[in-house]
Amino acid sequence: MSVDLRTPATIASTAAQLDLREALRLMLTIRLFDEQAVALFRAGEIRGSTHPYIGMEAVGVGVTLALRPTDYVTSTHRGHGHTIAKGGDVRRMMAELLGRSTGYSGGKGGSMHIADMDRHMLGANGIVGGGMGLATGAALTARLQHTGSVAVCFFGDGALEQGVLHETTNLAAIWKLPVVYVCENNQYAMSTRSDWSVAGGDPASRAAGYGIPGLTVDGMDLVAVHSAACDFVERARRGDGPAYLICTTYRYHGHHAADPLNYREREEVERWRQVDPIERVKRAVVDGGVMTAAEVAELERGVEAEIEAAVEFGKASPEPDPDQLMTDIYA
Amino acid sequence: MSTVQDLSTPHAGPLPGGEGGRTREITYAEALNEALREEMRRDPAVFVMGEDVAVWGGGGIFGVTRGLVEEFGAERVRDTPISEEAIAAVAVGAAATGSRPVAEIMYVDFIGLAMEPIVNQAAKLRYMFGGKARVPLVIRAQEGAGRGNAAQHSQSLEAWFCHIPGLKVVTPSTPADAKGLLKSAIRDDNPVIFLEHKALYFTKGGVPDGDLTIPLGVADVKRVGSDVTVVGVHTMVGKALQAARQLATEGIELEVIDPRSLVPLDEQAIVESVKKTGRLIVSHEAYTRGGYGSEIISRVVEAAFDYLDAPPVRVCARDVPVPYSAPLETAALPQVEDLVTAARALVHNER
Amino acid sequence: MATPVIMPVLSLTMEEGTVAEWLKDEGEAVARDEPLLMVEMDKGTVEVPAPAAGVVRRIVVQPGTTVPVRTVIAEIGAPGEELSAAGGPGDLSPAQAASAEAARTDAASARAEAEAGRTGASGRSAATAAGAAANASTNIATARPGERVFASPRARMRARALGVDLAVLRGSGPSGRIVEADVLAHRAAPPDESRLVVTPLARRLAQERGVALADVRGSGPGGRVTQEDVLRAAATRPAEPVSQVTQADMLRAAATRPAEPVSHVTQDDMLRAAASRPAEPGVQPLSRIRRITAERMAASARAAARVSLFLDADFTEAVRFRQQLEPEFNRLGVARLPWDAIVARAAALGLAEHRHLLAQWVDGQGLRIVDAVDVGVAVTLEPEGLVVPVLRQADRRSLRELAAELLELVSRARAGRLSPAEMQGGSFSITNLGAYRIDGFTPILNPPETAILGVGRIAERPVAVDGGIVARTMCTLSLSFDHRVVDGAPAAAFLARVAELLERPYALLGI
User: Fold this and answer.
1) Are the C-beta atoms of residues A223 and A18 closer than 8 Å to each other?
2) Tell me: the pLDDT tens digits for C10-41?
């Protein structure tokens, strides 16, 4: 059983170093972006599917704020939050969701294949566990080329049972690669509960089997997440190897925007909304005197406007030319 | 293994590279070793990873990585646990972030475990990310039968990779081709599946000195002829040359083409040849059904239908798991006699 | 009820007719008595008027199909009118139905081929229905009109480029598929003979009887040459030399057919053979004469069980004989008395007594008995080549005649003016290398002949006579023969008799 050994003081000191205003801005951006994405999907403007990060913002932002710009992040199918947290441009993201040539991938990738290579965001990924090898490999490059970079692999509780997690963790452990595996345990893979699918019931305790640290934190608590992430990222950067950070969180929406949601109760969702991470940060910034309520409201309005502009940008952009079909298959 | 003279038949054209003009007789494995060594010296981003590549027997189960860990150290020549998916997946991640990994899958038969990172990540990152990603990755594996390794250690699976857009697939048959193509594959900014053949490792051939690079997408006419075009992969190149020698005494002249890379494929060379001969045989050790020979035939029919004087023929392995017992294995695989019979039937208008 | 259009009876003897061309399409209106279609029958092609006014509702029999008279070939009705219930091939017998069905599906390709401007279309009259059905499963030699031509794509391309009509070709590929080689072989053949439409049986018969198809008037539909035509031509042609088709067969089998007589061969004749592969650099293409010679030699070497016998004959008397006769021949207008004439006469007389050396091996069947003693004499040409003009019935002609004729033949041979007939059908050959100081050799047989006599140098040699060594004029006679046909002893007996005749040459004169 893993234990969070950090003292309130440690957490407080971390909080003091954390730019809460920026964190709030990012979290609001993520939420409003994904709410807009869901609306556009339901309006038929986004094809395929979209996987909202709504409710999980503290994890993406909390971890990413512990990283340098040259550190790597790999993501999941639920990747908008990680992209935004890594500093991604919501206009290019929205354009990509709308399949426009101005999108991050020229319209060729869609929601699950948004990447911002310049920001070392190695992409959302449509394969569960697909980012594990990518992150571990990025850590290997960092090691070989002595860049001092760290790689963070975001994955969901549904990926805990992919064989590749075992293989990459083991390899990273024996090679002491600078990678942190961050599990966003939002309680459900698609419809199956993680407390059912994870044998042994405690994902963090598996870390001990590899001789690496494993920790479970409250994923709805930005500061707790950030604090733990800082520890593990620094440890990895030092060359002490990988760790498992299991963040307990929740997605208010379904697995994707068309999820029938017949596998969980409405009451459960309401219970989790009581500990909404954004509300908690809003209270923290106001209570801590970092921002006034009016500033918070203004910030939120600013983010709304930004998202609206992003949607307009996307809708106004052209679709890709057919002559772009066969380009960029090979370098 | 004895020397197989067939495989050192001079190329129809001059070999590129080779500054000193000297040519040495070395084995296919030695040629690959030289390629790795030279590329690792040339570019510090190149590194090797795989099972038993560093220490076993001096380096690799066939000696391809011999001596590399001594020269380049354990950081750049990495033994891994038996984790094919991680080997491939981590190699992809490293390639996407500025390294140039040469990852080895010990037998191509194990590559099924690694298909996800190869097919869904390596092949597609560049395209899915709108051209923003680059995956300069080489995955080496060895194929082939004929040595009693039985069904799970004898396959030729190149067709799987040829099917996936975004991958390149290379199949050298001679030491010189192996060296030149591996160097090019390592320098290529795309994921290349580099398929060697276990029965070819100890065959010898002339390899010119110097920085020998052979471009991908250029076939090699290993024998000029006028009567039947034979496109061969791996060991079938040598068998086609043997068949050619036998048939020459009957006045039948085979033209033997080694595509060397299956993707990209030098379609033009094959089509030009068929326009001359009017008759086509494609031959590989991979199973007949769905083998890459079918793709080659389709392309030739599409491009040169009017030039065909007879239906194209596949001389490939039977659609059966490779058996263990010698007479069965021999019967399952395409042999020189099969090529001879097929060529005769074509020339005598019996097909 | 629609009005049926039937194959009309256009003459008292007409049993069947071929729909050559529809002048109206389905759906077109037609007036009564307006020309509706063209029908080909034994008297020619005739216009057939529509029996009623209306719209052509259905065409039942497609162009190129032959049907018996009174068969329903189309229907005319008012638009929307009900067509006959039986419809289509209902009125035909099953074989006819099959033919009509086959012809219908092939009509499109036939039409396309006709549109492509191929020749021979006018020569097409329909196969009989039964014939077509029967032919469906056999390996037909040439395409029956209206039938699909199976040809490889390359053959089609080559045929298009060379203007060859695939329908007249015989396919050598599997199931009679026409391949490129067939197109090219045809191209090398004399146009008049191959562009005729000839039934396979007629073609075979012509070959056997030695009838040139070009000389035969075809009485079949569209000028097709039939069996009867060939037999008629064979019966009425002028008497040919007695010889069977032997060397002619060999020439044909060599897969080249000269557009001009063999005698006009020149050193730089390009081979118009089946395979027109580009020559490798450094490889000279063969002249026809070289190639024919080579193939004949190789065939002989492969097939026969050749044995050679050597006999040293005393030519002292023969030398005297010749010296005495030559001036006499001169006075009779024969410039010289060549040794070859003397030897040929001796061989001929020997053969008349040893006729078994004239028999010829026929593969798979037995021995062909040959009566005529036609002796070929090998003549070397400059700068290269070997021809064998034949002295016919050398056993029945005088030495003077043989000498005169031989001189004439050799002269024309050297001038390249021998006709094929003069070189065909010998039953024995002699060959003389004496001028090159050769004593004895092992001459190669000239197939299908069973024996050949080589003549060596006629010169003085030391010989044992009555216990002492004297100088005699000797000549080694080398007889090669096919042991499949003749055993050693009979062959030796023949050679001994020839030697005897040459040693006592006065018997060579007509006595």
Assistant:
1) yes
2) 776 677 888 888 999 888 999 988 889 988 87
Interface of B with A in 123-142 (CB under 8 A): 125-136
- What's the CA gap between B144 and B121, in Å, rounded? 26
Report pTM.
0.61
Touching subunits of C (3+ CB pairs, under 8 Å) are B
Q: Which residue of A has its CA nearest to B124?
A: A329
In chain A, what are the domain boundaries?
A: 8-316
pLDDT of residue C133: 36
CB-CB neighbours of B337 under 10 Å:
12
Distance (Å) from the alpha carbon of B86 to chain A's nearest alpha carbon: 5
Chain A partners within 8 Å of B131 (Cβ): 106, 327-328
Q: Look at A137 and B89 and tell me if their CB atoms are within 8 Å.
A: yes
pLDDT tens by residue, C187-235: 776 545 544 567 667 777 777 777 777 667 677 665 667 777 888 887 7
How far, in Å, CA of A210 to CA of A203, rounded?
12
Q: Is the pLDDT of residue C385 over 60?
A: yes
The predicted model gives C314-341 an average pLDDT of 94
Catalytic residues of C: 483, 487
Nearest 10 degrees: CA dihedral of B141, B143, B149, B153? 60
Distance CA C257, CA B129 (A): 68
Q: Catalytic residue positions of B?
A: 84, 153
Cβ <8 Å between B310 and C277: no
C397-443 tens-digit pLDDT = 999 999 999 999 998 888 877 877 788 789 999 999 999 999 999 99
Tens-digit pLDDT profile for residues C49-94:
888 889 998 888 888 888 888 888 998 988 767 666 544 444 444 4
Residue C266, pLDDT score:
34
Average pLDDT (A148-159) is: 97
The strand pairing partners of B49, in sequence order, are B78, B103
Q: What is the pLDDT of residue C13?
A: 66
A137 touches chain B (CB under 8 A): yes
Q: Which domains does chain B have, with CATH numbers?
A: 3-8+24-208 (3.40.50.970), 220-347 (3.40.50.920)
Please answer yes or no on whether B97 and A72 come within 8 Å at the CB atom.
yes
Asked, as a colleague might, if the bond just before C448 is cis with ω within 30 of 0, I would say yes
Q: Closest chain B residue to A70 measured between Cα atoms?
A: B97
SS3 state at B187: helix
CB pairs under 8 A between B and C: 33
Concatenate the DSSP letters of all residues of C435-456 into one string.
GGT-----PPP-TT-SEEEEE-
CA neighbours closer than 13 Å in the CB half-sphere of residue C356: 15
Q: Which of B123, B167, B161, B166 is nearest to A326 (CA)?
A: B166
- Supply the ipTM of this predicted assembly: 0.84
Both structure tokens of B223: 């024998």
> Any CB–CB contact under 8 A between B100 and chain A?
no
Integer Cα distance of C211 and C192 in angstroms: 14
Q: Cα–Cα distances in Å, from C9 out to B202, C43, C219?
A: 83, 12, 21
Contacts of C156 in chain B (CB under 8 A): 306
Does the distance separating the beta carbons of C172 and B309 come in below 8 Å? no
Chain C contact set for B310 (CB, 8 A): 152, 173, 179
Which value, in Å, is the radius of gyration of the alpha carbons in chain B?
20
Q: In what order do the strands lie in the sheet with C72-77?
A: C3-6, C72-77, C54-59, C29-30
Looking at chain B, which subunits does it touch, using at least 3 CB pairs closer than 8 Å as the criterion?
A, C
| pLDDT band of C145, cuts 50, 70, 90 | low
User: Which CATH number among 3.40.50.970, 3.30.70.141, 3.90.1150.10, 3.30.2090.10 corresponds to the domain A8-316?
Assistant: 3.40.50.970
